[in-house]
Specification:
Layout: H1 15-34, H2 43-53, H3 59-74, H4 78-84
Length: about 80
């Protein structure tokens, strides 16, 4: 019997974020980790860093990346991405 899973359409709205995400994690992970005890670098500064390194991102996409990296850091999942790269 041939049971194929139905084709699923990509639901993500920001494919360019997906393309640069690992490199963005490498850039932001040390900053986010350093911000744990005292916020030394603001979200604004991190946004500027992302836009300088990844000019194809919009401001909104940069904020998505920052929020995701911060969340993954809090959940102790960022290390897995960094070790896989």
């Amino acid at each position: 019997m041939n049971t194929q899973a139905p084709a699923t359409e990509e639901r993500r709205e920001h494919p360019q974020v997906r393309e640069i995400f690992v490199r963005a994690c490498e850039l932001l992970a040390p900053i986010v980790a350093g911000n744990d005890s005292i916020m030394t670098i603001s979200s604004f500064a991190m946004t500027q860093m992302l836009l300088q390194n990844f000019p194809e991102l919009s401001h909104g996409e940069a904020h998505i990346v920052i929020a995701t990296v911060e969340k993954m850091h809090r959940e102790d999942r960022i290390r897995k991405i960094l070790n896989a790269s």
